[in-house]
Write a structure and sequence with these properties.
The complex is a heterodimer of chains A (about 575) and B (about 575). Chain A has 20 helices and twelve strands. Chain A is of the alpha/beta class. In chain A, strand 9, helix 17 and strand 10 form a beta-alpha-beta unit. With about 575 residues, chain B is α/β, with parallel strands linked by helices. Among the domains of chain B are: about 200 residues, ABC transporter type 1, transmembrane domain (ABC transporter transmembrane region fold), CATH 1.20.1560; about 70 residues, P-loop containing nucleotide triphosphate hydrolases (Rossmann fold). Chain B is built from 20 helices and 14 strands. In chain B, strand 3 and strand 4 form a beta hairpin. Classes of the chains: A alpha/beta (about 575), B alpha/beta (about 575). The interface between A and B is large, with 154 and 151 residues.
């Protein structure tokens, strides 16, 4: 958690005020036993009722002051913690936005989501607890020790000894339990995974008649966890009883030695009473402290995960140029090679091709053959390992992200929409698109009829992920979103998979007639690309064929094989 | 929900889980009683000890020594009893949790698939994992804390009453006041908490949506717009967070304040009494009283926390019991036969629906001879899996019957029926474990040679060999390293290991690249040879070569026949055929 301290820098005042007032409160609390001793030794001994009343009044004042201090401390602790959380969240979000696809791939979206929500909440809570409670315990312990040393340094030494031994013991228990706790946690995750598996695979489990075995497997794991937990329980259960023993032994010492001192006249009865009181305070504080360590430890594990993300840097360096030129060659790959993992196999290797303005490029190949990778490199979501990619004659590395990506209209494989309306979703493609432009785009995307059927028209609400639309409608919405910006290059990445063949055909026709864009179509279906001006056939990251449908049918084995398996006699 | 928090029926059910280990409960309660009483005794002794030390030259050393020894003994008793109490209650908690989880698993494995299909898996999961933990934490640990608290309160009160009833009355009456204050504050902070929860929800929704689709966001240059939205919610979250946290932290200092006041009152009244009559009320008694006041107050402070914990434990228990109450499949009839199917399947007048309102299948009749091939076709989402569900008895028919080798499938054991089919579904399922274990899933005792042979037949051998540890590489549903297509190959290898006489195949191999797919197809064709097969078909050749074709639309079987007959009919099949397979 310490590593993230700079996110507290705007809240230095709060961060200091909170513990300070906690300290005041602890001091006030520590004075109480001394005052009580005073009441016993002076008030009672002398039969001075007025003095007793006086002390009581002062104590009530202290209690009220203590309450005020506590409230101030808690208010500032809350403020500091939430301020910290807010800054951390902002920083994290900015970081995520700065990541290239490479970092996003490495971390994974689910992990990022947990880190920016749950982990930061946990870390925030950790800071709050730390400021509010964690410091209180040491204050009380140290304060009680100092007070006892002041009352009588010889007896005070007993206190110091007891506290040190007890502290060591608490540390020992923690050192023994924390790693075992992690083991239990892992076992629980295992059981969680097993349960999930059996739910998602219920059909397969039954098809292989494995229910009994799965139950037995589950029971075995469950039994192991139970044993581990029980063993852990035996150790962690020691904490409270042992601290109790130490403190009471301390009390016995105070009584026995203190008795001698009182007899000798160096100590009073009231002071003995105060010392016993301090001993109990130390006990309570240490137990609270031990329990808090667990909470703070989990907060610091979360902080660690957050910190890890904040340490990462995007490998992409943004260029600073825009490019108003519109040469004939829109896109050019020169000997491009790229691998997702350093040292791993290349996803694409030695790719060279050009795409002319206004033409349609088809890219075909099996899954994992590198089709989508080409587009990701063109939009510079990743940097190439070698070779060069040029858009409108300029290397992509020289563009600002905005200028480069603004030239593309991407229809991704997965049709994702966002919560809002039909209008707001299409406007992602162009911020100030008018209703007419949006309607036109929906028309191209073959959603014209559907739109007419929606009572609310463009104001129709879209739920998160677009789940209130059918798969086909969603896919066409993403097409409208890309088309509305009249991009220089329209990229259709396998984006007709949910459409029936007739709609798919009309869609392609409409794009051809109504969009001025250069088009890149990525597909596994030969029918989707066979009319393209140029087709690239990819196999295992390499271009194994380039040309028109007819030329490839004659010269490219892989292409022939694909067509044969899909068009089956129909396309001969 | 709050009103029903103490539901007797539920307590009874919970007790049923505790019952086998109830000795731990009673032992723990017994130890708890001893440790509470002993620790009160220790306090009395400490007070007595103080009384032995009156002043200079006035210390009763002999008595003091005895008291010190007595405290030593009492402390030893406390140590043992408290330790044992903790051990026992944890043993009970963990054993109970284990039993509930085992029962849940058994229930889920024997629940009809309709139960699992119709529920959110994440929800069931959180019930079996999180809620069960909640029960042990909240109920068992909360319960002991409550028990401890009540015993402490009662015993302290009795001792104080015996010692000096006047002061006991002051303490006894005013301490519960702190409870009222805590409650009052809690009620008012609940509103702030709700606001914070709403904001947190908004934040999570935004992050879920935007970060979850960060690649699309970047493609459309929406980073800045989103940052604006994010910052706005973040700022609002801060404000509500500060309030919620502050208000929720109020009960602690305010109850402490009340307790301090009581402590002072005890001190003052006690002091006045000592001054009034030193013989009847000693300084030692006062010291003890001050300690008792603290001991008495502590459980009150904890009780409000325990109550919320108990409440949430009861809510969790209810959720867990809902899983345990899942309907169960009727067990196999006692005289059910074990099927060794040759492969003749007859479907007679079968009627079926998933819910009572919409009847899906009515009067379905089909005769499939041994070795015949049945293709099931229709647009995506038309419910082709319904047939699979009925054949495998994942669901039971509502009327009519299905016969295999002339035997009604309701009269044979489910396991033998299901083992008679080799099934490859579209959605892949990989169990966490090694590749080898996954292929040998149906027959764990298979030899390495058999496993390798099966992998080769499924064209999986190549990629498996390239995995870091080959056949011993650990894989899982979410574990990276292997692609969706490769998972599918493993699923195919799994049934290649033991090919039964009947097959159920889903041809939709969309995630396998075209070239592998054609190889798979050849393997499919080979294994279908001579075996009765039901194929959810996507390829024209499969359909054309099928002996029977079932045409489905919107969950119903609307046409049935072979390719030629169906084309002649010029119905839905004819349309489908032309749209999908004729020249584009």
């Amino acid at each position: 958690m310490w590593k993230l301290r700079r996110y507290l820098k705007h809240y230095i005042k709060e961060t200091l005020v909170a513990p300070l007032f906690k300290f005041f409160e602890a001091c006030l609390e520590l004075i109480v036993p001394v005052m009580m001793a005073e009441m016993i030794d002076v008030g009672i001994k002398n039969g001075n009722t007025a003095y007793c009343y006086f002390i009581a009044a002062v104590l009530v004042g202290f209690a009220a002051l203590g309450l005020v201090c506590a409230l101030i401390a808690q208010y500032y602790a809350a403020k500091a913690a939430h301020g910290y959380g807010t800054e951390l969240r902002s920083a994290m979000y900015a970081k995520i936005n700065s990541f290239s696809h490479a970092e996003l791939d490495r971390l994974g979206m689910p992990a990022l989501i947990t880190r920016i929500t749950a982990d930061i909440n946990q870390s925030e809570k950790g800071v709050n607890r730390f400021l509010r409670l964690f410091l209180r315990a040491p204050f009380i312990v140290v304060g009680a020790l100092v007070a006892s040393l002041i009352i009588d340094w010889k007896l005070g030494l007993i206190f110091v000894a007891v506290t040190v031994v007890m502290g060591l013991f608490v540390w020992l228990i923690m050192a023994l339990t924390i790693p075992r706790n992690k083991t239990v946690q892992r076992m629980l995750e295992d059981i969680n995974g097993l349960t999930r598996e059996n739910l998602t695979g219920a059909r397969v489990v039954r098809a292989f008649a494995r229910q009994e075995k799965e139950i037995a497997d589950f029971k075995k794991k469950n039994e192991r966890m139970m044993k581990m937990q029980s063993a852990l329980g035996v150790i962690s259960s020691l904490l409270n009883p042992v601290t109790y023993v130490f403190v009471n032994l301390g009390i016995v010492f105070v009584l026995v030695f203190g008795g001698g001192f009182v007899n000798a006249g160096t100590l009073t009865q009231g002071e003995i009473s105060a010392l016993i009181n301090y001993m109990s305070q130390i006990l309570l504080a240490l137990v609270v402290f031990a329990n808090l360590i667990v909470v703070v430890a989990s907060g610091s594990a979360s902080s660690e995960r957050v910190y890890e993300v904040l340490l990462m840097h995007s490998a992409l360096v943004e260029g600073d140029k825009e490019n108003p030129e519109k040469p004939d060659t829109v896109l050019e790959f020169r000997n491009v090679s790229f691998g997702y993992n350093a040292g791993g196999d290349n996803a694409v290797e030695n790719i060279s091709f050009t795409l002319q303005r206004g033409q349609t490029l088809g890219i075909i190949g099996g899954t994992g053959s590198g089709k989508s990778t080409l587009v990701a490199l063109a939009e510079r979501f990743y940097d190439v390992d070698s070779g060069e990619v040029l858009v409108d004659g300029m290397p992509v590395k020289e563009y600002t992200f905005k200028a480069l990506r603004g030239k593309f209209g991407l229809v991704p494989q997965k049709a994702v929409l966002f919560k809002g309306t039909v209008r707001s979703n299409v406007q992602w493609g162009r911020e100030n698109a008018t209703d007419e432009e949006i309607e036109a785009a929906l028309g191209v995307a073959q959603l014209g009829e559907t739109l007419a059927g929606w009572e609310e028209g463009l104001d129709k609400a879209i739920e998160q992920g677009g789940r209130n639309l059918s798969g086909g409608q969603r896919q066409r919405m993403t097409i409208a979103r890309a088309v509305v910006g009249e991009p220089e290059i329209l990229v259709l990445d396998d984006s007709a998979s949910a459409l029936d063949y007739a709609t798919d055909y009309r869609l392609r026709k409409a794009i051809k007639e109504q969009c001025k864009s250069t088009v890149i179509v990525i597909s596994q279906r030969a029918s989707a690309i066979k009319n393209a001006d140029k087709i690239l056939v990819l196999d295992d990251g390499r271009i194994v064929g380039e040309g028109t449908h007819d030329a490839l049918l004659k010269g490219c084995e892989v292409y022939k094989e694909i067509c044969a398996s899909q068009l089956e006699g129909g396309a001969k | 929900m709050k009103g029903k928090a103490l539901d007797l029926g539920m307590l009874k059910r919970l007790y049923a889980f505790i019952r086998p280990n109830r000795k731990y409960l009673f032992l723990s309660l017994f130890c708890s009683l001893i440790s509470v009483l002993a620790s009160l005794l220790a306090t009395v002794l400490a007070g007595e000890g103080v009384d032995c030390i009156v002043g200079a030259g006035n210390v009763d050393f002999k008595r003091l020594g005895l008291i010190a020894a007595a405290i030593g003994v009492v402390v030893a008793v406390i140590f043992v009893s408290e330790w044992l109490q903790n051990i026992f209650i944890q043993k009970l908690a963990y054993k109970t949790v284990r039993n509930i989880r085992n029962d849940s698993m058994e229930t889920l494995q024997n629940a009809p698939l309709s139960y699992i299909d119709s529920r959110d898996k994440g929800d069931i999961l959180s019930r079996v994992i999180t809620d069960v933990t909640e029960i042990s934490d909240g109920l068992l640990l909360g319960f002991t804390q409550l028990f401890n608290g009540v015993v402490t309160i009662a015993a302290t009160l009795v001792i104080m009453l015996v010692l000096r009833w006047e002061i006991a009355l002051v303490v006894g009456i005013f301490t519960p006041l702190s409870l009222l204050i805590a409650n009052y504050v809690a009620k008012h902070s609940a509103a702030e908490f709700k606001k914070q929860a709403v904001k947190r929800g908004e934040m999570t929704a935004l992050v879920d949506e935007m970060v979850g689709n960060q690649k699309v966001v970047k493609a459309f240059l929406q980073e800045e717009n989103n940052t604006e939205k994010f910052e706005k919610i973040n700022e609002e979250l801060k404000e509500s967070g500060v309030k919620a946290t502050f208000f929720s932290s109020l009960p602690n200092p305010s109850t402490r304040f009340v307790n301090n006041i009581i402590y002072i009152a005890v001190g003052l009244i006690g002091a006045l009494m000592v001054i009034g009559d030193p013989a009847a009320f000693t300084v030692g008694t006062l010291t003890a009283f001050l300690m008792y006041a603290g001991k008495y107050a502590k459980p009150f402070n904890e009780i409000s926390g325990v109550v919320t914990e108990l409440q949430s434990a009861f809510t969790s228990a209810r959720r867990v019991f809902e899983v345990l109450d899942a309907e169960q499949e009727d067990p196999d009839a006692p005289d059910a036969e074990t099927l060794h199917a040759e492969g003749r399947v007859e479907i007679e007048n079968v009627r079926f629906s998933y819910n009572k309102e919409t009847e899906l299948i009515r009067d379905l009749n089909l005769r499939v001879e041994r070795g015949e091939r049945v293709a099931i076709v229709g647009p995506t989402g038309c419910g082709k899996t319904t047939i699979i569900n009925l054949l495998m008895r994942f669901y039971d028919v509502d009327g009519g019957r299905i016969l295999v080798d002339g035997k009604n499938i309701e009269n044979v054991t489910r396991n033998s029926l299901r083992s008679s089919y080799g099934m490859v579904l579209q959605e892949t399922w990989i169990k966490r474990g090694t590749v080898k274990e996954n292929i040998a899933y149906g027959r764990p005792e298979a030899t390495d040679e058999e496993i390798e042979a099966a992998a080769k037949k499924a064209h999986a051998h190549g990629f498996i060999r390239r995995l870091p540890q080959g056949y011993d590489t650990v894989i899982g549903e979410d574990a990276g390293g292997i692609s969706e297509g490769q998972k599918q190959l493993l699923c195919i290898a799994r049934i290649m290991l033991d090919l039964p006489n009947m097959l159920i195949l889903d041809e939709a191999t969309s995630s396998i690249d075209t070239r592998t797919e054609s190889k798979i197809q050849r393997a499919f064709d080979e294994m279908m040879e001579g075996r009765t097969s039901f194929v959810v078909a996507h390829r024209l050749s499969t359909i054309e070569n099928a002996d029977k074709i079932l045409v489905m639309k919107a969950g119903r079987i609307i046409e049935q026949g072979d390719h030629r007959e169906l084309l002649q009919k010029r119905g839905f099949y004819y349309e489908l055929y032309n749209a999908q397979f004729a020249k584009v």
